[in-house]
Amino acid sequence: MIPYLFLFAYLAVLFASLWKLFKKAGKPAWAGFVPGYNILVWLQISGKPWWWIFLFLVPGVNLLMFILMNVNISIVLGERSFKDHLVMTFLPWVRIPQVVFSDRAFVGPVPVAERKRGMLGQWGDAILFAVIVATVFRTFTFEAFTIPTPSMEKSLLVGDYLFVSKLSYGPRLPMTPVTFPFTHHTMPFTTSTPSFVTWFSQPYRRLPGFGVPERGDAVVFNFPEGDTVVANFQNQSYYQLVRDYGRQKIHDPNFRMLNMVDGQVRQVATGGILVRPLDKKENYIKRCVAVAGDSLEVRHGMVYVNGEAQPLPPDGQMAYEFTLKSNFNEKRMKELFDVSPDDFGPGEKGGVSVPLTASAAEKLKNFDNVATMERQEHPRGYATDYHKLPYFPNNAEYDWSEDNYGPIYIPKKGATVKLDLHTLPLYERVIRVYEHNHLEVKDGTILINGAPVDSYTFQQDYYWLMGDNRHRSQDARFWGFVPHDHVVGKAVLVWFTKDPYTGIRWKRLFTLVK
């Protein structure tokens, strides 16, 4: 509430002062009281192009525009030192009326031929406007994104740099507009310092796009479980860590767990808990395999949507376990199948586990050093000693695994599902977290916002997203649905790519994402 009071106070001071500024500039005083037109006149007397008015319509960017134009009030009234601009930037509530209602005459913007401002002033203007333009571009059109993990291989590779189209599904308006430029959620050169503030936020809104996520799209989205993060284990689900270790231990900043640091497994303290708003959750990329209203099931590793088999993309991978007569030659495996040293792992039956495309597996099984090859498949009820209830809905009533999963209905806006104690785990997070209802169970009765219910109607669409590297992907099978308001954009172009082991992949530069 306090930030909005500051904002309203600033706007009141500004629009109570513009008429006086306009009068000094030889413009009609009444123009200062006409919303929209007063911005156009303000731009005109400041020597700025008229089309800048559109930048005032962009959340987040409009705050920068007001700062820029506040400084221009000082400039057109003859206050042109760096100190004048600094005071106007941080104390507009006081400085605007002081300057405007003083006896200072209007001198206009500095003519181009006479601009001899100091280096700080020149660079400040250039940098501020560059930040504004770049922010508009990355918010509403395309944003760069990096593939950090092998969950989409071999469709998208570790080291790929993508352009993600915000226009494909409609750009979201910023929900936390006050943020350090060109950061997502963390300040540069830090591991956990937030780069945003939450005291000034906006509700979720999305502009029209060219479509909605469809089956087969490579979708970038905010990780649904990323609202809470363990500071020194940000690549792991907070909720799974709580299931494994207990909430009390995970919330203890001094509790130590094993983690990979500089290529070595070490005991690392949790470092505390970070909380992030929706648009600052970590960005993930996965393949959309089912859309709102679909029913999905995984049988023996094959995905079925509405009863129809959905083939794995040609570049998709499964994990295969090999028993070997002699070790694989890592260099040769890289050359033939693009298998990196990091891809080799211990098998569950004592062999070597390797993620491969179907065609690569068919070739590799005939190698002389291969004794046996078997594709990984976890049956229903599969469990490990490492993670407790890892498969969504993370409930003991559901014995699903990543290879034998479902069936499960993907929520669709306006659709209604039966709600009882058996189906509740499937949609509890949707109801409570994504759609902001108060949900509780008393004496076997489900209460939503205090009223007993036996059904629920969804308020938005949801999607089911999975990695193309099916056995090396933490995806919807582990954390559930992706709400439409979490969708960021569609991956469209690989503009640069570099293999961690062999360098630039020249043939993949400027290729379309399939």
Walk me through the structure.
With 514 residues, the chain is of the alpha+beta class. Among the domains are: 2-117, no CATH class; 308-375, Alpha-Beta Plaits (2-Layer Sandwich). The protein contains twelve helices and 26 strands. It has helices at residues 2-24, 37-45, 61-76, 82-90, 92-100, 119-140, 238-245, 247-250, 330-337, 358-364, 424-434, 476-479; strands at residues 142-146, 160-165, 218-222, 228-230, 256-261, 264-269, 273-275, 283-290, 295-299, 302-305, 308-310, 318-324, 345-346, 352-356, 370-375, 405-409, 416-418, 439-442, 445-448, 451-452, 455-457, 462-466, 482-483, 487-499, 503-504, 511-512. Strands 1, 2, 3, 8, 22, 23, 24, 25 and 26 form a nine-stranded antiparallel sheet that branches. Strands 11-10-9-16 form a four-stranded antiparallel sheet, with no helix packed on it. Strand 18 (439-442) and strand 19 form a beta hairpin. Helix 3 packs across helix 4 (82-90), helix 3 packs antiparallel against helix 6 and helix 4 (82-90) packs across helix 5 (92-100). It is elongated. The two termini are 46 Å apart.
